[in-house]
Structure formats: structure tokens, C-alpha cells
UniProtKB/TrEMBL annotation:
It is an enzyme of class 1 (oxidoreductase). Its EC number is 1.17.1.8. Belongs to the DapB family. This is 4-hydroxy-tetrahydrodipicolinate reductase. It comes from the Bacteria. InterPro entries: DapB_C (IPR022663), DapB_N (IPR000846), DHDPR_bac (IPR023940), NAD(P)-bd_dom_sf (IPR036291). Pathway: Amino-acid biosynthesis; L-lysine biosynthesis via DAP pathway; (S)-tetrahydrodipicolinate from L-aspartate: step 4/4. One of its GO terms (biological process) is diaminopimelate biosynthetic process. PANTHER family: 4-HYDROXY-TETRAHYDRODIPICOLINATE REDUCTASE 1, CHLOROPLASTIC-RELATED (PTHR20836:SF0), DIHYDRODIPICOLINATE REDUCTASE (PTHR20836). Transmembrane segments: none annotated. Keywords: Amino-acid biosynthesis, Diaminopimelate biosynthesis, Lysine biosynthesis, NAD, NADP, Oxidoreductase. Residues 32-96 form the Dihydrodipicolinate reductase N-terminal domain. It holds the Pfam family DapB_N.
Length: 224
């Protein structure tokens, strides 16, 4: 994601002044007050086992932050607390694509209707490139979590595949003896993730608090 963010950042009014990678961030050594002195926002896309340590450092430095890495959300309460205690802004999401965030709402709505229909069984599936480290994807976990929160308590059969260069496909389905409903989001490239993260960076540079990306995206709800 780093290269894509760097390429698109100027379109969002950002100049990229600091890039930390495993070479210049050994044991978190890149997170100095000097390095972050004139930084208006940081975007964190690394690896599931690196994200929390990086986010902790950004909170202490009070840098407005966009958390893009997946696989660490079990520690969200800890990270949230740290940003709140340090009065630092944070936006987090397993998926910064606008389409996926709308897809999440469609899936939640389907779950509300399906929890009253015991004839249907559900599956959740995702497909990503073979370099992806975590499975199931953060997005798929959140989709299923959204179904649960909407009251869907039947079994959901969850599966992941890793192959080639697929940027990210997520599917939720319901099947009965009579018919099948298939809901699918297919990312065409990684650009949508990068654009959403840059939009979030612009927002958190000017605002405070800890927010899930969808709160920002849907802050003005459509009129029905
Ligand atoms: N929220 C969203 O919309 C999206 C989330 N993601 C998630 O973002 C994460 C990163 O994905 P992706 O960009 O594809 O991964 P990549 O592996 O392509 O890039 C991650 C980069 O982070 C570097 N890195 C690893 N550890 C550290 C560290 N401690 N400090 C600084 N840099 C570090 C890696 O270095 P090296 O290569 O040398 O190991 C690598 O350059 C994944 O968890 C993925 O699931 C991805 C796309 C969209
Ligand atoms: O690793 C990826 O590539 C992606 N990861 C995110 C996830 O785990 O949900 C989002 C997107 O699908 C791409």
C-alpha cells in the first residue's frame, strides 16, 4: 500500500516527508519527536504483528493517525485507550474502500431479514493475493461481526483463499432448497483502499477523537 499512498498523496494536498519501513524502523527506532515534528498525519499499513507497537508510538507522539493494517483488532480497546489518554486522533478500519463500507451495510441489512428465515444457511468467503499474511481478512471478520450485531445467530461457514495478485474479493451468501442469494464486492485494484485512507488522513488532521472510518464516511446519512 505504501507506494500507492505515496503516489496519490499529492492529490489530497499531502507532501510525503517520512516513510518508515523495517530498515529504518528497527524496534520502533523511527518514531522520534524529531522525525514527526512537522507531520500532520500518519498512515500505518505494515503487518499484523507490527501494527500495535507502531500505533502505540504514534499515540504517545500525538500524531493524527490512520490505522490500515489488519489482524490486530483484538487489541483495539488498548489502542483506543492510548490515543484517548494522549488526546491524539485515530481513524481505524480493516477496509478504506467506499464500496466495501456500503457493502457492509447491505450485508447487515440482509442479515436482519435472514435471521427470521431458518430455511437459509449462510457462508462468508474472501479471496486475496498470495502475499497476504492474515486469514480470514479483517474485512470478512467485520462483515460477519456486523451480521452478528444485526441479530444473525445461525452458523456462518467462513472460508479464505490466497492466490495470485487478487486485490480483494468478499462474498456473503445465503442458500436454501429453493434459491441462493449471493452478495459480492470485488476490488478492481488497491486504489480505492489508498484513496479512502488519504481521505481519512485529511479528516483526522483537522479533527479529534477515535473513529471507525464508516463514521466519517457516513457522517451525513442519505435521506430516505
Ligand atoms: N484497511 C485497508 O483498507 C487495507 C488494509 N490492508 C492491510 O494493510 C496491511 C499491509 O498490507 P500491504 O501494504 O499489502 O503489505 P506489504 O507487505 O506489501 O507492505 C507492508 C510494508 O510494511 C513494512 N513493515 C513491516 N513491519 C514494519 C515495521 N515494524 N515498521 C515499518 N514498516 C514495516 C514491510 O516491510 P518489508 O516488505 O521489508 O517486510 C512492507 O514494506 C495488511 O495487514 C493488509 O491486510 C491492505 C490493504 C487495504
Ligand atoms: O491484505 C490486503 O490486501 C487487504 N487487506 C484488507 C483485509 O484484510 O480486509 C482489506 C483488503 O481486502 C485488502
Amino acid at each position: 500500500m505504501g507506494k500507492m499512498l505515496e503516489r496519490l498523496a499529492p492529490e489530497y494536498g499531502f507532501e510525503v516527508t517520512l516513510i518508515l519501513d523495517i530498515h529504518n524502523n528497527v524496534n520502533g527506532s523511527g518514531f522520534t519527536a524529531e522525525n514527526f515534528r512537522d507531520v500532520h498525519a500518519a498512515i500505518e499499513f505494515t503487518a499484523p504483528d507490527a501494527a500495535v507497537a507502531n500505533l502505540e508510538k504514534l499515540a504517545v507522539l500525538r500524531v493524527p493517525t490512520v490505522a490500515g493494517t489488519t489482524g490486530w483488532f483484538g487489541q483495539l480497546d488498548h489502542v483506543r485507550q492510548l490515543f484517548e489518554n494522549n488526546h491524539a486522533g485515530l481513524v481505524y478500519s480493516p477496509n478504506y474502500s467506499i464500496g466495501v463500507n456500503i457493502f457492509q451495510r447491505i450485508v447487515t441489512e440482509a442479515a436482519v431479514w435472514m435471521q427470521q428465515q431458518p430455511a437459509y444457511e449462510a457462508w462468508a468467503w474472501e479471496l486475496h493475493h498470495s502475499a497476504k499474511k492474515d486469514a480470514p481478512s479483517g474485512t470478512l471478520l467485520k462483515l460477519v461481526e456486523g451480521m452478528r450485531a444485526a441479530g444473525y445467530h445461525n452458523h456462518v461457514d467462513v472460508a479464505s483463499n490466497r492466490a495470485g495478485a487478487v486485490p480483494g474479493t468478499h462474498e456473503i451468501g445465503f442458500d436454501s432448497a429453493a434459491d441462493t442469494i449471493t452478495l459480492r464486492h470485488t476490488a478492481r485494484s488497491r486504489e480505492g483502499f489508498a484513496r479512502g485512507a488519504l481521505h481519512a488522513a485529511k479528516w483526522i488532521a483537522a479533527n479529534k477523537g477515535v473513529h471507525e472510518f464508516s463514521e466519517i464516511l457516513f457522517s451525513s446519512e442519505p435521506q430516505s
